[in-house]
């Protein structure tokens, strides 16, 4: 790893490992060509250093390094496929383009992209539509979406809405709009019907009821999956919940430690690559165990790291020998 860092090849090496492993899984028919794409950021605390282009934040004790992680879901299996260290004011589009080009050139079919709210960028949404990938992500907390929620609660609208973002000025045409669908859903721990009922019975104020609802953007871009909101609410919510797979991956990888002890950005990226590969292998083992026996006890990370083979599937290990 120190040699990779010296040669400035840490990112290229580990992403190459991830890509190769992904292709191996497809050859073993553990995944197929149809995939769901997920992107998210993870943060690691770092020492305050104004000269470090990777150091975000200005207050001592609250500065951090940021990594953009891409992962996929296929046949119920979640896998990390790339990590990128992020600099201040860095354009992220080339990173999305690199991953998209690799997946497309390798024969993968991306039906859905599951993103967090911080990825709400006009250029990114336009690009996903151009790529014919349907995007599902939370809407912005803006005047437009707030009004949609108020209209729903006041009986002036329903949970199926239309939204838009204004694009760059085009000479002779003005400002074109990128339109998308909005599905109003309840935040965790709440039910939409109960929020509406309690508001109508004056058990909730308009402000409190509004805080329990948020808009989910669905930018339809292809004909390979869902094509409309009505009748697909349950599946859309299920797809959005799948985005949490990457959050769970971060949580589990954090249990492995190491990174916070180092300050070198490349060293941290290398450790994260190793943890990501370990996470991927663990997920494959869990997947195979359940496939062989749906009632089998889930393989926990501690057991996997403890080198006990009582719950591991023997079918995968020889294929990698």
Architecture overview:
With 321 residues, this protein is of the alpha+beta class. It has two domains: 2-116 and 243-320, no CATH class; 138-221 and 228-237, no CATH class. It is 39% helix and 22% strand. The protein has helices at 2-6, 10-27, 93-105, 122-130, 143-153, 192-200, 206-211, 233-242, 244-254, 265-292, 301-305, and strands spanning 34-45, 55-56, 64-74, 77-86, 109-114, 134-138, 160-166, 177-186, 213-219. A hairpin with a 2-residue loop joins strand 3 (64-74) and strand 4 (77-86). Helix 2 runs parallel beside helix 10. The chain is globular. The model is unreliable at 316-321 (pLDDT under 50).
Give a short summary of the structure.
This protein is an alpha+beta fold and 321 residues long. 39% of the residues lie in helices and 22% in strands. Helix 4 links the parallel strand 5 and strand 6 (134-138).
